[in-house]
Design brief:
By secondary structure, the protein is an alpha+beta fold. Helix 17 (644-663) packs across helix 18. It is globular, with a radius of gyration of 28 Å. The chain is built from 19 helices and 28 strands. A 7-stranded mixed beta sheet has the order 3-5-1-12-9-10-11, sandwiched between helices. It starts with 15 loop residues before the first helix and ends with a helix. The model has no long low-confidence stretch (mean pLDDT 96).
Amino acid sequence: MADTTWIGKPIKRIEDMRLIRGQSVYLDDVKLESPLHMMIVRSSRAHARITAIESSEARALPGVVAIVTANDIAELYVTGDERENGKYHPVLARESVCYVGQPIVAILADTNAAAEDAAYLVNVEYEDLEVVVSPFDALENTKFVHPDLETNIGYQKTLKVGDTEKAFAKAHKIVGERIYNQRVAALPMEGRGSAAKWDGETITVWSSTQGAHDLRDDLAQALGLKKDKLRVITPDVGGGFGAKLTSYPEDVLVAIFARQWNRPVKWVESRGENLLSMTQGRDQIADLEVACDKEGRVLAMRGRLIADMGAYLLKFTSDVAPGTLPMLQGPYHHLEHFELELFEVYTNKTPVSAYRGAGRPEATFFLERLMNLVALEFNLDPAEIRKRNFIPANAFPYKTSAGADYDSGDYQGAMDKLLEHSNYAKLRQEQQEVRSQGRYLGIGVSAYVECCAYGWERATVRVNQGGTATVLTGTSPHGQGGATSFAQIVAEQTGVELENIEVIYGDTKKVRTGMGTSGSRTLAVGGSAILGAAQKVREKLFALAAHVLEASQGDLELIPGNIHVRGVPIKKVSIQELANLAYNEQQLPEGLEKGLEENSKFDIQNATSPFGAHLCVVEVHAATGEVEILEYICVDDCGTIMNPLLVEGQVHGGIAQAIGQALYEQVLYDDYGQNLSSSLMDYVLPRAHFLPSYQTHRMVTPSPTNPLGVKGVGEAGTIGGTPAVANAVIDALGPFGIKHLDIPFWPQKLWQAVNTKIS
C-alpha cells in the first residue's frame, strides 16, 4: 500500500471518549415522558396447553395500567425465515407454549417496579404436553413440537458432489467421528430492550438492535403499516454477536402498546430473561467420515448434520446450518467429493439464530477435529497433515467443490508463519520432555477460511461549511469501531481532520436504507460505499482548488487540512476555505454545482474470504481435570488493514468467545425442557484471568471484491479459536489414549475421561 495519512494507521477509536466519559446513551438511558413500563410473563413449561390465566390480583395493584394476553390483540407473528415447514413465533402465546421463556402475558404499569410486582401475581395454568428435547428424538418424529406439522423436520438439504462412493471404496484409510458443537448463549454485555412512542402519525422505536432498517421493515410487516410510518433508532448498542439481528415479540409489543395507549412504552430485559429468551447459537451435531489416500490427502466426506433450531423460526434460524455445508471443505484442495445430508429440527427449546460466525465456526470445528483425527491415524504431525491438503496460493480465485467462492488466499503461508512465530519444533520438543515429568502439555493447531460480506450499502459524505464532514451509513456498528474506520476513509479522501468528522447511523429517518451489521460486512460493503461517495467529494474539492490556485488538478496534492501545488507547499488552500466557497453560488466556477455532498452505492458481487491459522498450548492437570492455557498464537489475514488497533480488538474478542465455547460455555436443558443455565451462576463465561496474553500476527492478501481490498475480521477469532483450543486439550490427553471428547472441556469431564482410561 502506498504511504497514507490515515489508512492502515493505529488510530484510537473516535467513539471512545464519549463512552469513557459516561456520555453514551444505551436503550435503558433513553428518556421518555411518562412512559409505561412493560414486563413479560413467560412460560415456565417447555410444551403445554394454556388452560387458564388468572390476573385479578395483578390488575388490582396500584400503578398497573393493563394486563394483555393474546386474546386482547390481533394474532401477530414475528418475521422469520421463509420455509415450507416454517413455524413463526407468535407475539404472545395463545393456546400453547413451546419453550420455557416464551411470552404469554404483557403487563403495562406506571413504574417498572409495579410491572414486576404484577408479573409475580399472574398465574398461568397449563396442561403439559410431550416434550422434545433431544434433536435425535426430534428426528424420529414420534412426538411433535408442532403437532399440526406432523413432523419436527423444519428443513432438509442434501449436498452431493462428485463420486463419493467411489472415493470411499478406493480410500487408503477412512476416519470418522460424531462431533458436537454445543448450544451457547450470545450474552452481550447489554441485553435486549425496546421503547416506542406514537406521535399521532409515526411510531418511533428505540431498540438495541444490529439492524435498524430490518427491524423497521419487520415491524411494518407485523403491524400492517407503511415503512414511512415507522422510525427506528438504535442508541449505543452494547454488543450483539448476531443475536440482535433478530426481531423479537417485545419489539412488536412496545410499538402496538405505544399507539394503543398513546403513551411511550419501554421494556428492558433482565439477565435472566436474556438467558431464557434471546436466541441461542450453534447446536449442531455432525456424524462425518472422510476418505484419505495413502499420503494423508483428504479426498471425500460423507455424513449427516442435525441442527437444533429450537421451537420457532426467527430471522436466520434456518439460515445458519445451510451455511455450514459449503464451508466443510475449508482451506483444503483435494476434498472434492461430498455426500452430506442436513436436517434442521424443531425442539422445545429457545430458538437458535446467528451467533458470531453463524455456520462458519461450526463447519471449521467439525473439519479441524477431523483433520487432527486423520493426523493421528497416519501418525503425522497435525501441521503436516494440513500442509499436504492446503489449496495452493496460485489457485485463486478458487471455487470449492462444496460450492464456496474464495477470492484470494495463502493458507500455506499463514501456517508457515504460525509455526515460525510459535517456534513449533521447540514446542513439540518441550512437550515430550515434560511428559516424562508427568505433565500433560497439549499443542493444538487449526486452519480456517470463511466467506463473509454480502449485499449492498448506500452512503452519503458531506463536507460542510466550516470544513467539518458528515457521513451517513446504513450499517450500524455496535462496539467494533466502525465510526473510526469510516472517518479514516473520509479523512484520507477529503483532507478533513479526523476529529471534525461525524458518522451518523442507526436512524431510519436520517438514513433511509441499509442492511445493518452482520457477517463481517461492515467495512467491505459499508466502507466501500463511503469510499465511493468520498472520492466524488474529493474530485469536487480538487476542481475548486484548481480554480482558486490557478493550477491543473494533476499538479495538486492533498495533505490533512489543505490542498497545495505539488512541490510548492506554500501555494495552498485549506479545506475549510474550499468548503465555504462550495456553498457560495456567486463565487463558484462555472460548471460546478453548489455544495459538497455526494452519494454512492456499493453492491458486493462476491464474498470475501478471510483466513488464518491458530495455535494454542495448554496444560491439562490430570489430577483435577483443569485446563491452563499457556500460550495462544494466531496469524490472521483480513486483506487490507484499515486500522490495526481495531483488527487487534476484534481478534482478541473473538478468541475470548472461542475459548469460552471450548472450555466453559454450554446451555443445558433437562429432559423436561427446563433451561439449567438460566443465570450467570450456572452459565460459565470466561473471566479475564482465565485468558492468556495472545500473540497476534497478520498477513495481508487484499480482496479483489471491493475497492478497499478488505476482508472481514469480526468472526475470525471464533472460527479459528475453538478448534485450536480443543485440539490442544485432546493432544494433551494423548498419553491416556483419548482421541476425541466433546466440548466444553469442563474439569469434571476431563477428570472422568482420564480416570476411566487409568482404571
